[in-house]
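> forwarded from #structure-qc
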């Protein structure tokens, strides 16, 4: 049974990915930091549906906790075949409101956090017969968003991280790809007022917002054998927004 470690998997896109991977026969390791109740409830739901799942608490900005998480994932699943770097935070406000502590928190979580987990998990991924690293970015990492400078910068960094790492790990048989969601109906986006959401929908050719399972499905496909010759790519799951 192939295994997948998904960071920030207690809710949103991460939770949808956990359910999809489990339904497709993966041993799923759910990472969470604060949302323990949601993570454990999701694991119960996956097990009730016949899947294999366990939850591991770790703050991905803490390298000691990340090393412990990877060790537990290997112990529980026998290894790590697929890594989905999904965990992230956002800040909505002008650049002048983005104080140094806010900037540091967003970059440390969204970009350095992905580095921390990938660095710790890579030896295990290299042991896989077909290792996969899938990073979750955003359309704002490509397009840039007013009042989300820190988030846009971090997600742009994830794209550069993906492309460079894909070239480096290709000879090891590991693919590294990126999913860039558009506006998805998640808790993170619930703060936007109806007028802002309407404007985004109007600029989206499919004329709707996305569901968490849609970028999750892109991640599942990138982990599959069908995508074995695809690496260094950014897959938009944005309804044509870009």
């Amino acid at each position: 049974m192939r295994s997948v470690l998904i960071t920030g998997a207690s809710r949103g896109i991460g939770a949808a990915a956990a359910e999809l991977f489990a339904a497709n026969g993966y041993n799923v390791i759910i990472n969470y930091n604060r949302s323990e109740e949601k993570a454990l409830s999701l694991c119960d739901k996956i097990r009730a549906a016949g899947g294999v799942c366990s939850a591991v608490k770790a703050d991905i900005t803490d390298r000691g906790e990340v090393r412990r998480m990877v060790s537990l994932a290997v112990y529980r699943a026998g290894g790590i075949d697929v890594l989905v770097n999904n965990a992230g935070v956002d800040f909505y406000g002008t650049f002048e409101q983005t104080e140094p502590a806010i900037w540091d928190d967003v970059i440390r979580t969204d970009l350095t956090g992905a580095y921390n987990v990938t660095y710790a998990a890579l030896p295990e991924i290299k042991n896989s017969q077909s290792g996969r690293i899938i990073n979750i970015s955003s359309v704002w990492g490509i397009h840039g968003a007013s009042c989300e400078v820190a988030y846009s910068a971090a997600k742009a960094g994830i794209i550069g991280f993906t492309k460079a790492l894909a070239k480096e790990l290709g000879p090891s048989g590991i693919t590294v790809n990126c999913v860039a969601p558009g506006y998805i109906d998640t808790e993170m986006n619930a703060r936007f007022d109806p007028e802002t959401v309407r404007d985004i929908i109007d600029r989206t050719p499919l004329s709707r917002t996305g569901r968490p399972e849609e970028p999750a499905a892109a991640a599942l496909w990138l982990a599959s054998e069908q995508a074995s010759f695809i690496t260094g790519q950014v897959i938009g799951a944005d309804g044509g927004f870009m």
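QC bot note: The CA atoms of residues 70 and 121 lie 6 Å apart. Helices lie at 12-23, 36-48, 63-77, 100-127, 139-143, 149-169, 194-202, 213-222.
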